[in-house]
């Protein structure tokens, strides 16, 4: 480990991050909500911490190894989670547990909350909360498009071609800096378009920007307790659907579509295609179930609520417009399965990712065929590309660790006092970065034991870091030279 | 397909099976419970059906292909299930649905029931019910030791060495007949020893034989509604533990231990070793949880109930001595995970099987190591044997299909009206061949919708036939020439 170089980097990062309190400070001053000192103190504390880390190590710049990279990625979310919690402690007087939970939930773009009474919160705190999600989204598209494919986390090496296509001039060493700049331009453009659309559809400018932050990042935080249900507007829901989907598609594909000004980029990508068809099929199935069970009187309402819920859960955004309470019992289960499937790789979405689920299904079918025709040589293909066996095994390893993490977290949460449904709900919603759970945590994590909240923090970090990147830090082999 | 040869074989099989009604007939006559005509009619009907199938095809004997083998194995359980249901229809006037459910539950050694008031049932019907499980166990050890390893179902090819070791003189063509004879001698010996032990421990001879049938077959049917809890005897529970474990160990290993009169055969087998350690660890964990939650006042009771429950669920037997109602909430979940793990391959137990779970875990860990050391060449090993990648992929395919089957069945059962907990309970207990479920089906399937019962029948057959062998029949590719 190049410890001092890592510490130097985090010093720089914290100093940079401290600037992100400035917009919140501006909001506090404009809305005169009395919170300006909170953000000034947070800024000062973060800047000082950054300087303290940086100064003694300012000359220790050095080449970082892959192992350093793992540590940096994992600490990045944990560290920003802690400093992003400052305004919740200083402004809302939340406990350390609650403040860190809320902040990590933001940075990982999960959107689970411990705060009730959002409508009465100071605007600057609300803004800070939305902005955390947006910054978390910025972090993750670079992680997912440029870093994970190189590390080859659980099949992510399949995205290498897409990743190297983003930086204009392909070079042996991937240029993460240039890739990041291109991705962030796209991300910024999508956010601006989303905010504009929300604003034109009738939101206040404040709400439009805040919800755009949470939509494109597939985060799901809202400035209202009733989430998007607050507006009861089909138009706003339709806009949210478009931009949630945009946030859950591989940003490298966005880049190609934008560069060539050609939407066929989406249709040509097997993962995006299957993602779209699953959203379509899932929406029709849920809408039909709702209509059949007479949860809604007309076809239109069934389609509206069915589609919104499917998109919101499968993209791992977690905006709500309706409660599941009156819905037929098998619907929540289908939504949970879609949540595990998740969005596309290289996006801000959580879950296993569509491509991995495609490989799972294709391998299951292949083994069945192989079994019927023992001598046939059958390949697993994605589009026209043949997937090698080591990649398949890599995806399998990912899958095993994902399931094992979920099972152990569920047992631990039950031991900490949750019932089965709530524990499972808390686990699927944190690990898949979704937001709303089931049972006791259907709406908020406010009432659960602190142990459950810390387990949730672990779940969110594990989900955001694609399990491997977090678990590897707990392996002695990683720390040995 | 050699249809007429297959039909001829089933004719012979049914004629043979019709003889199994004779012991029940004898019980009816000895206990004078008025059911003798039921068994005479069942015998006559089964014998006639067998003759009807056999006579027109008696000269159509021919070499059977592997494809024929799949059909025979799948139809074997379905067909015996239907004819084994006759006494339930004729004697207890159950509906066709209920009778077939009960019979398939017996033949697959699941042990889920739709009958309440067992203590008041005619002895001959009770005997028939226990005997079904024993016969199902006979069928499955031959299937699991001699047939599945040759077909290579989801990693079962790993058992080929053990399988060929059972028949004394190794030959290129495996001699299923000789293997079956050896296995059945062992099975018969274990059953006799179990019955004797139960009898000496205080059961009536009738109960001792009946429970021995259900114990060695890891079936779990009982002649009392309170199951083994009826006796409230630590000695009887200890005997049941020993023989449930025996039923859940690979019979090829039993054979080696018996041939060499050396218990090290068990310790030398990696799967049996891990199985034993999991049982030990699971029992201690559950006992500690029970004591910690003060579900039982003393350490002894906690250990007694914890161990029995772990053995009963993990061996997929499903005998009960206590209800989970007062137990801490995470215990049922741990038991469900153990139930999915299941017993060893080549045994009468259900579940994924210990060896497959070992491969799942080892691959997960290997991928994590590989990730920390990208250039290392790491092998997955069971004992000293290196597992090839095609076997790993075959196990993965199995796992995917297993999970997919469980998820789809759960959704279907919820659509048929069960709540989430009950649907999940009904699925895990049927597919894993366990017996008792959760929620509405915690004790009996009597009250659920007929659709749920038929879904349960499908689940039990899928579990018994290791998914592949059943699903392959639904593939067009299988039926094409
Ligand atoms: K989310
Ligand atoms: K059983």
TrEMBL record, chains A, B:
Key words, A-Z: Cell inner membrane, Cell membrane, Ion transport, Membrane, Metal-binding, Potassium, Potassium transport, Transmembrane, Transmembrane helix, Transport
Keyword Phosphoprotein included in the entry's annotation: no
Keyword Metal-binding: yes
Main location: membrane
Family: Belongs to the TrkH potassium transport family.
Function: Low-affinity potassium transport system. Interacts with Trk system potassium uptake protein TrkA.
Descriptive protein name: Trk system potassium uptake protein
Organism whose genome encodes this protein: Allochromatium vinosum (strain ATCC 17899 / DSM 180 / NBRC 103801 / NCIMB 10441 / D)
């Amino acid at each position: 480990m190049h410890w001092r170089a890592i510490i130097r980097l985090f010093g720089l990062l914290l100093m940079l991050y401290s600037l992100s309190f400035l917009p919140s400070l501006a909001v506090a001053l404009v809305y005169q909500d009395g919170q300006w000192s909170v953000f000034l103190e947070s800024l000062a504390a973060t800047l000082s911490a950054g300087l303290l880390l940086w100064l003694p190590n300012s000359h220790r710049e050095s080449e970082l190894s892959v192992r350093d990279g793992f540590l940096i990625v994992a600490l990045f979310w944990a560290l920003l989670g802690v400093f992003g919690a400052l305004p919740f402690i200083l402004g809302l007087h939340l406990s350390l547990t609650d403040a860190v939970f809320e902040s990590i939930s933001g940075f990982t773009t999960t959107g689970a909350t411990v705060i009730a009474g959002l409508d009465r919160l100071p605007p600057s705190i609300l803004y800070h909360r939305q902005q955390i999600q947006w910054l978390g989204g910025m972090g993750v598209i670079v992680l997912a498009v440029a870093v994970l494919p190189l590390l080859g986390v659980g099949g992510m090496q399949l995205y290498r071609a897409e990743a190297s296509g983003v930086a204009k001039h392909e070079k042996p060493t991937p240029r993460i800096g240039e890739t990041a700049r291109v991705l962030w331009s796209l991300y910024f453009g999508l956010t601006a378009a989303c905010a504009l659309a929300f604003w034109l559809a009738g939101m206040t400018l404040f709400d439009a920007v805040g919800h755009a932050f949470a939509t494109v990042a597939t985060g799901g935080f809202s400035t209202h307790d009733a989430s998007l249900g607050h507006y009861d507007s089909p138009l706003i829901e339709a806009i949210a659907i478009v931009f949630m989907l945009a946030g859950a598609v591989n940003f490298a594909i966005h880049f190609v579509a934008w560069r060539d000004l050609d939407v066929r980029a989406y249709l040509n990508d097997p993962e995006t295609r299957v993602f779209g068809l699953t959203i379509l099929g899932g929406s029709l199935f849920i809408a039909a179930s709702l209509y059949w069970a007479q949860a809604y009187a007309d076809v239109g309402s069934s389609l509206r609520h069915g589609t919104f819920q499917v998109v919101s859960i499968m993209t791992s955004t977690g905006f709500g417009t309706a409660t599941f309470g009156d819905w037929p019992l098998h619907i929540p289960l289908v939504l949970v399965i879609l949540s595990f499937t998740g969005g596309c790789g290289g996006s801000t979405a959580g879950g296993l990712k569509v491509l991995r689920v495609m490989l799972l299904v294709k391998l299951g079918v292949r083994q069945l065929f192989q079994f019927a025709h023992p001598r046939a040589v059958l390949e697993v293909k994605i589009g026209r590309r043949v997937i090698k066996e080591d990649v398949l095994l890599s995806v399998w390893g990912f899958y095993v660790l994902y399931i094992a993490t979920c099972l152990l977290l569920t047992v631990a949460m039950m031991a900490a006092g949750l019932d089965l449904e709530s524990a499972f709900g808390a686990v699927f919603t944190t690990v898949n970065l979704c937001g709303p759970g089931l049972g006791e945590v259907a709406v908020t994590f406010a009432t659960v034991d602190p142990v459950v909240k810390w387990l949730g923090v672990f779940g969110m970090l594990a989900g955001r870091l694609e399990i491997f990147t977090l678990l590897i830090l707990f392996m002695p082999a990683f720390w040995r030279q």
